[in-house]
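Q: What does the assembly look like in three dimensions?
Context provided by user:
Components: two
Sequences:
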Amino acid sequence: MATLSPGAEALERLIGFGRELRRRGLPVGTGRIVTFCRAAAVLGALDRADLYWAGRATLISRPGDVEAFDVAFRAWFREGVRIELDLPATAGEQADAAIRTTDAVPGPDVREDAVVAREWHELGEGEETEGEAAIRIVASASEVLRGKSFADLTEEERARVARLIRRLAVRVPMRKTRRYRPAPSGARFDVRRTLRRSLRTHGEPFHRAWRARGTRSRPLVLILDISGSMAPYSRALVQFGFAAMAAGRRVEVFCFGTRLTRVTRTLRSKDPDRAMHEIGRLVADWEGGTRIGESLKALLDGWSQRAALRGSVVVICSDGLERGEPDLLRHEMARLRRLVHRIVWVNPLKGSPRYEPLARGMAAALPSIDVFLPGHNLESLDELSRALGD
Amino acid sequence: MNRLPFASVEELQRALEEDRYLADRGLATAIYLAVSLDKPLLLEGEAGVGKTEVAKVLASLLGRDLIRLQCYEGIDASQALYEWNYSRQLIAVRAMQDVTAETHVEDLFGPEYLVERPLLAAIRAGSRAVLLVDELDRADDEFEAFLLEILSEFAVTIPEIGRVVAEEPPAVVVTSNRTRELHDALKRRCLYHWIDHPALEREVQIVRARAPEVPEALARDVATAVNRLRSFDIAKRPGVAETIDWAHAVAFLGVERLDEETAAATLGTVLKDHEDQELAAAHLAEVLAPGEPAGEPAEA
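A: Here is the predicted structure of the complete assembly.
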């Protein structure tokens, strides 16, 4: 069917595809398009499958982008398409030049770049910055996002915030281990190693060796209220949990409304978006209000869970509007306090300047809490991350 | 530019097959392009789908040395690039006190005291090597930035010795289990391919190629069972490596077909998580039911 002749026309078609992807919101920079053209030149004559796989290898690098790529590909390259290029050595330069001449005019196309750049900027500084203006947009956009309450986010902002949270540096609480290990400097003199070393220096204890106690990370336990109004905040904390898990930490996540469910496994086995979806389904089942005290009791009574709690840092996210008995909550909080290293309570209501912890539940829990934080936007999550490290 | 001894993607695919690595068209295209364009190939996918194997088979196909850098949390330049041999230096210092010795202090930082780590080895070997950077997602951001620098120049400056430059860059394969997202700057430098679990037919072929002693029917039983296990809600989905292990194990036990008893006894070769094993054991009849597994992932 349609065979595109060698040269400019074919190249135009390839570059156009790269632009099409960009138009559809995929992070396809000029560098990637040039690589795509060079790849096509290496292959020489390409049928549809060649085009597809060459594009997949060069234009995208995230499994999540494959679907959008497929849709764009089907729309752009019809069945039976063939592209022939007989300019192996120069295709890259040609493409580069072709792109630059059309991009040189600061028109709508540049603005397009800016939008794209904003979307992927949070993943790190681009090595090929697509205009200074773009970067300024990014900076201000993230500033606004930092202070915006999670409950007020649009769907698109939520996705971006989720990505930002996952990149939050999760500081990990450490504890000293009992075991002494060889160390460059430390509390104990390591006679054995010093002696061994002295053999190398004709028996002179030239190099002294030391032993010091090592450190281990404490487990992080998230206990999240996912009833009605708390869902957006808890969702953000789940992302936070992902970040911690990705940093290789031991993380346990429990969700509660009227009863407690361990969701650690859901988080571990699935990708973040699917896990969020699944937890979202659980939320729908539990519109019955909050029973914090009973949920904590269930947590503390389960022996395997209690083992996971010992010495950990617990983050509870709830508005403290308890439906059950405040006395039970007070009692269970005190039990929890004895078991764990530290309790951080995240209450989004605290984000409001007029808030005072007068709710009966909150008042009952307060004596057992080490750190009380709002956690309603990115900024305060950053604060949470810092509180964990202390 | 084109340093591959293969004229087309199909030819490369056939050569890989002869080397007992069954790659689909997408992976073969990505490998072909990466070597032709002198770009690192970034492979992502779940554990056990054969990412590391790509580097090994590529090295054997090209007749090059495989240099492997296993990443881990906290890896730094002294473990990845080079290190001085301190104990040797100490002995030399000792020897120098002998007035007749001819060693000078400068010699202490000569090439003979340099301990070569994988990256330096790869730079020195240049196009005689395939560099495998394994499980990059385990290392931290700083290391990624450092690696990016190395990958873009293939040159390193050692203050005491001078600049070491690769005449021609080595072929590079980077793998990641995607426990975290890699930096975009690094991704942009690489060609990318996501390796999925293979479709049933291909997995049967792979088992046959890798475990020739396993009869066809048994290989098909095992591949079908693993395929179904993957669709379960389990924490650690078994990879191709596990399928091959399982096939080896049941063939060793001398059974003709995979039955419930054998499967239950050998489940540990394919599922390595206690809760996963319990789940599978409870649904064993379903896992071993005759017929094709439903929801087969289509191969493009």
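Follow-up: The two ends of chain A are 67 Å apart (CA to CA).
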